[in-house]
Amino acid sequence: MDLIVEQTASGWRARYGARAFRCAIGRSALIAAEEKQEGDGATPIGRWSMLRVLYRPDRIQNIETELPLTEITAHDGWCDAPEDPSYNQQVTLPYEASHEKLLRDDQLYDAIVVLSHNSNPVVPGLGSAIFLHVARENYEPTEGCVALQREDLLYVLQDVDSNSAVLIAPPET
């Protein structure tokens, strides 16, 4: 089953089966996947497979999911430098090229679902680190990811499998 992200009259929501959750998307709203650019703050329209889950074992224990699970450590990063051979891939820190640290002080990356956007093949500059992750308390926009309240994310994770995806729907015209 897919997590369907769509705009409603009252804002952004994600539907999973019969349940609907408030969610956040990128600060620049939606963009066609082929027009996505590194750092534009837009969420790419499309159906993105849920590949695996990265999580903070010091903050979340016993995640129930069929997706592969990997603990986040202080040495985990994600390369966001389009010119680097490891662009849009997990890297080991310290790392010379531009990157994000996955072990954050805030709660946003307590659980991260790695999505398939720009992954096979990776195209330099087409966007990196498009994740499904934990939302800020007030659902402030993301840098291009989709974000749910922690409890909602954990609810979805307990039911997904290797065929599940995040479907980011274009606005209805």
* Unreliable parts: none
Largest sheet: 8 strands, mixed, barrel
Q: What sequence of helices (H) and strands (E) makes up the elements?
A: EEEEEEEEEEEEHE
Count all strands and give the number: 13
On the 0 to 100 scale, the average pLDDT is 97
Q: What is the helical fraction, as a range of percent?
A: under 10%
User: Which structural category fits the helices and strands?
Assistant: mainly beta
Strand order of the largest sheet: 1-2-3-12-11-10-5-13
Give Rg in angstroms: 15 Å
The N- and C-terminal alpha carbons lie at a distance of 25 Å
Describe the structure in your own words.
The chain has one helix and 13 strands. The protein has one helix spanning about 150-155, and strands at about 5-10, 10-15, 20-25, 30, 45-55, 70, 75-80, 90, 100, 110-115, 130-135, 145-150, 165-170. The protein has an eight-stranded mixed beta barrel with strand order 1-2-3-12-11-10-5-13. A hairpin with a 2-residue loop joins strand 1 and strand 2.
Summarize the entry for a quick read.
With 173 residues, this protein is mainly beta. It has one helix at residues 150-157, and strands at residues 3-8, 11-16, 19-24, 30-32, 43-55, 69-71, 76-79, 90-92, 99-101, 111-115, 131-134, 146-148, 165-168.
Topology (SSEs and partners):
Elements: E1 3-8, E2 11-16, E3 19-24, E4 30-32, E5 43-55, E6 69-71, E7 76-79, E8 90-92, E9 99-101, E10 111-115, E11 131-134, E12 146-148, H1 150-157, E13 165-168
Parallel strand pairs: 1-13, 4-5, 5-6, 11-12
Antiparallel strand pairs: 1-2, 2-3, 3-12, 5-10, 5-13, 7-8, 7-9, 10-11
